[in-house]
Amino acid sequence: MSIEVKDLHFSYGNVKALNGVSLTLGHRAIGLLGPNGAGKSTLLRILLGFLVPQKGEGKVLDFDISREQTLIRRSVGYMPEDDCLIPGMDSVTFTSFFGELAGMPRQEAMKRAHEVLFYVGLGEARYRRLETYSSGMKQRLKLAQALVHDPKLLFLDEPTSNLDPQGRVEILNLIKDISSSKNMQVLISSHILADIESICSYVVILNKGELAAQGRMEDLREIHYSLYEIKIKGDSRPFVRALESAGCKVDETEDRILKIYMPSGRDRTEIFRAATGTGVQVRHFVKSQTSLEDLFAQAVGVD
Amino acid sequence: MTTIREKGYAHWDGEFIDRRFPWWPITRTSIKLAFQRKHFKFFFSGAFIPAVVFLVGIYISERIEDFRFMFKGSDKLLVINPAYFKTYMTGDFLLFMIVMLLTFSGAGLISDDIKHNSLQLYFSRPIRKMDYFLGKASVIFFFTLVLTLVPGLIFFFMKLVFSGNFDFFLAYPWLPLAVFAYAGLLTVFLAFYTLLISALSKNRRYVSIMMFTIYIFSESIHGILFGIFRNPYLALFSIKANIQQAGAAIFGQKLPYAFPQYLSFLVLGAVCLLSAYVLKRRIRGVEVIR
Lengths: 303, 290
Known about the structure:
The complex is a heterodimer of chains A (303) and B (290). Chain A is of the alpha/beta class and 303 residues long. In chain A, 38% of the residues lie in helices and 29% in strands. Chain A contains 11 helices and 14 strands. Chain A has helices spanning 40-47, 69-75, 91-102, 106-119, 135-147, 165-181, 193-199, 217-224, 236-245, 269-278, 292-300; strands at residues 3-12, 15-25, 29-33, 55-60, 63-64, 76-79, 153-157, 185-189, 202-207, 210-216, 225-233, 249-252, 258-263, 281-288. Chain A has a 6-stranded mixed sheet. Chain A has a 4-stranded antiparallel sheet with strand order 2-1-4-5, covered by helices on one side. In chain A, helix 3 packs across helix 4 and helix 9 crosses helix 10. With 290 residues, chain B is an all-alpha fold. Chain B has 15 helices and no strands. Chain B has helices spanning 24-36, 40-46, 49-62, 68-71, 82-89, 92-105, 108-115, 119-123, 129-145, 149-163, 167-171, 175-200, 204-229, 239-250, 261-282. Classes of the chains: A alpha/beta (303), B mainly alpha (290).
């Protein structure tokens, strides 16, 4: 397992940032989700070795998070959320510089910088000064510096923030490629649930310093409920009441589609029985996939 | 921009090395960046003018007969002794040029990293806060030592070469040590001074102005207050006066200000301590992720 933490506790003064979080992660692409103040940043700080947990223990790539922080940082790559650059540098110098700081020999860091810059799509712009880079290019540059020393585990903090749709798709494709075919594990902390959904096979949701949910995306979707989308003809109110009294949650979208969240173990024929009982016609019936957004909302208790 | 994955990703099969000085890449890169700055090479070359003049002086002192027509009997001007070294090392022009150079090369050392969020990248690497500090401070060490220690030792060596004997060495065997001690003191002080101010603002321009202004303003305050109160202790307000007082003490010369030399050492030391405290608070590894 690449990340194993047990009963982690950390407080900033009186504020509990992490309260007994235990995780065992070894999947290719892991999504870390949670509202602001959920403890994501604190967890990342601890995993990168910047903070020592006040209680609990853990390992990242078999290195102890309390005693072997330097070794952890050599073996992981980190792509921060903010734009980061050193003015006056070009991207080759920048990338090789951080490769050297990771412990690579100078010449190899330089050679490797060229390779990863081509990989992230900055090959032609690698001698341009960083101040002239667009947001998308800066994002790729951050990815390049995180990859230069060929880490085994990559921490990505909001990798698609400030990107236009095309740039976002390109970065997501890169991350997908890294996690799926480059023998590298990726932990992505993001607020953009669609990004997590498109890349990650495993999700960890934190809320108020505690683990709200974790598991494989498919399992999480299946465990909680099944989602059906239907269109009806007739008065929807008695129909919705009938479904709610049967334990279902019903949302109506703007285009009058009813999304029915049916608890696991229930039979979908109950929907048709309710329709018959309330005199409405079912004109459209689709079993839909529960989105991560639905899952997130349910886990952290928000609508 | 080229198409993504124009070239594929290949794993690196090399081995990491444990550098004896993990901060060295920071120093090397920062010095290189300083030389890329506009007008920096011009100021850097200009800072060597006093060294060249003093070196010529050493040559002339050994060939005084050939140049007597220039001095008209006042050959005492060119007596090479510890005072000559002290005059070079603590000279107003040299100190001014060093401060000028540091405003170019040192102002952005930390402020740029804070402004452009690169601290988090440094500390996501296997380097400690001390490595980061040493990497940045060594840039100041380089520029200060190249203008103090290096010329000082070259003067000493060239004096022996031009005179063709070891009389100068036998007369002042401690002089190279004094050069080392003064250059070390000045370097450490200026490193703390520069990094302190660089860590206080995100704006490199403000930092440059602050560095220069504090140096000049402290001297002006000293001048104004001394004009009013005629108290020599007021020189303790001046950075330059404290450096010159400490320099005179190290070279065993008459003190330029009428107060105990240890007070100047204390003032310089206090600035270093204040700087260390501020740097410790401003450069914090835990702030790498917000």
